[in-house]
Amino acid sequence: MALLELKNMTKRFGGLTAVDSLNLKVEKNQIYGIIGPNGAGKTTAFNCITGIHPPEEGAVLWKGKEITGAPPHKVAAMGIVRTFQTIRLFSEMSVAENVMSGRHFQSSQRWWHGICHTPGSLRDEKENWLKVKEALAFFKIDDLAAEPVGSLAYGIQRKVEMARALVSEPELLILDEPAAGLNDSETMELVETIYSIRDQGVTILLIEHNMDLVMTLTDYITVINFGKPIAEGIPEAMQSDPMVIEAYLGSEDDDDE
Ligand SMILES: Nc1ncnc2c1ncn2[C@@H]1O[C@H](COP(=O)(O)OP(=O)(O)OP(=O)(O)O)[C@@H](O)[C@H]1O
Ligand SMILES: [Mg+2]
Known about the structure:
By secondary structure, this protein is α/β, with parallel strands linked by helices. The protein has ten helices and ten strands.
């Protein structure tokens, strides 16, 4: 059984069909890529999976069970966690506080236990800080823990966002253009990071315009254009597929976002 399956998933905005009968199956422990030109419907597909824009038609299945239209907090609690194409962090808050905000799905305690400092809430708090410390060390940003996020370089903010997603201990990590805005050495570091996350047992679904990165990193790719899947296969096959070259790789020069 696939970890995540989309069956004929369709999302419309007025007269525009942004995602058009999308089918895909992400297997456990895969690194799965979605590629396609600007406006193809990639982010909208992620928004449908994560409950931001429920699809009008079709189904989202998580471990074989239908979760179509489940709200974002429920989807996250099930183990599906994402990052955004445009960084969404609390810029006034510190790196550690931002990463900690990813832990709130995990807490077994009610909020009033935290206020009253019950033994359970103290145990949770300790466990939360431990997870945050681990994540900061993993991304080699522990020395920046107290810095306000807004003052940090873009590449660091991307790491903070991934760290926040990881501390919620997802089974599926969804990354929307994780290399956008990164320089070459940061991109190479990202490749290692993603491999290492996968080696910890986390499945990865990502959108990316950087073709070198996609071809190196992914096990399997779906190509979409105008909301429709036009091809799927292993990276080597996609690189030489004439439909893909015409729809996307041929117009790579336009995609500099
Ligand atoms: N909230 C929305 N309301 C109306 N139209 C939307 C909305 N979100 C996306 N769209 C439209 O849906 C289409 C798909 O957009 P989407 O952002 O999913 O593309 P994308 O493949 O992620 O593109 P990019 O590579 O530029 O990020 C576009 O035509 C876009 O304008
Ligand atoms: Mg997008």
